[in-house]
Amino acid sequence: MLEDLERERPELVIDAGRSMSGRYMYNYPALRAYIDRQYCFMRYVDGEPVYRRRRTERCPPADY
């Protein structure tokens, strides 16, 4: 999955863990580290966290 994310570099990532029996990407250390480095949390949509690819070193305030 990390290789796919790095290759495709999607603008948005939706961590739809509910559709995976509660297995959110953020619960896995390697995926969590990647998301923290490459993405900023934006908001929840229908209870699922949405992340946007970082444009700068700092993330803007989250829009809950």
Q: Average pLDDT across residues?
A: 91
- Tell me, briefly, the overall form: globular
Biggest β-sheet strands, sense, barrel: 3 strands, antiparallel
Work out the helicity level: 25-40%
Tell me the strand order in the biggest sheet: 1-3-2
Count of individual helical segments: 2
Structural class: alpha+beta
Return residue spans where pLDDT drops below 50 for at least 5 consecutive residues: none
Q: What is the first-to-last residue Cα distance?
A: 27 Å
Task: Give the tags.
64 residues; three-stranded antiparallel beta sheet; alpha+beta; 3 strands; 2 helices; 25% strand
Kindly summarize this structure in a few lines.
Helices cover 27% and strands 25% of the residues.
If you had to describe this structure to a student in words, what would you say it looks like?
- The protein is built from two helices and three strands, in the order H-E-H-E-E.
- The chain is α+β, with helices and mostly antiparallel strands and 64 residues long.
- Strands 1-3-2 form a three-stranded antiparallel beta sheet.
- The mean pLDDT is 91.
- 27% of the residues lie in helices and 25% in strands.
